[in-house]
């Protein structure tokens, strides 16, 4: 029982995790597990010690709340930043894909234009030397002389 450590030292009392040390009357009492915080009728928070003797219960609660708050804020900031970066990278990828598709289409059109120009040039040369077949009847009879 924790009451056996009353009127001794705080360190001896808090070796048992289920004990609470109260500095107002130097007593070691069982921690009230049914309530999260010990009631002020039992011991005030500024005089209660639990876990370690060098920090009072009030400061322990404040420190734990600050640490938990910092963790939650950092997780929230990380999640928001990651979502923003992901959205930004997606839009950047979409822009790059659109730009590549435009360039690919431009190259294809230029290639078709050059192909058409080559065909016209070759047709002119064939016409000049009489090698151009009649476009109305492309399957003409081959004549030997």
UniProtKB/TrEMBL annotation:
Source species, domain of life: Eukaryota
Gene Ontology CC: cytoplasm; nucleus
Keyword Cell membrane included in the entry's annotation: no
Coiled-coil region list: 86-122
Protein's GO biological process: protein import into nucleus
Membrane-crossing segments per the record: 59-84
Keywords: Coiled coil, Membrane, Transmembrane, Transmembrane helix
Protein name: PTTG protein
Organism, scientific name: Sylvia borin
Top-level taxonomy: Eukaryota, Metazoa, Chordata, Craniata, Vertebrata
